[in-house]
């Protein structure tokens, strides 16, 4: 009888927890606002400044570390090999900081955030003295020590 009574008490005490609504409601939007949005926009400004002026030290200060997932994603029909390798910062670094000079601008920027995690999606436009290219980019950001850092980046590219 004690076992039956204990089981009933446990069921009664757990039932409100299971049936209760979330303690923190799901937000209507994840749009970043206020100081965090301004800080993320500052990171994006420093990103374009760093790649446009070949300031590798500034660029690397924006990264969580150099081993983050960082790669261009092949487009269907553009490459026979659609293998995506994610640890390609070194390839990116060589192309940007040792390659032909270009200016980069960001357009159509969307910033979503939940606490110390943010996601940015945008269109980037690269302009050289003779050519223009563009692509779509997504970045995962984390706030560490009060500063936003790039934790992952994936992008496409079009000529």
From TrEMBL:
The protein's name in its UniProt record: DUF4440 domain-containing protein
All residue ranges annotated as the DUF4440 domain in the record: 41-150
Pfam name, any one: DUF4440
UniProt keyword annotations, A-Z: Signal
Lineage, top ranks: Bacteria, Pseudomonadati, Pseudomonadota, Alphaproteobacteria, Rhodospirillales
Keyword Signal: yes
Organism: Aliidongia dinghuensis
Domain of life: Bacteria
Residues making up the signal peptide according to the UniProt record: 1-19
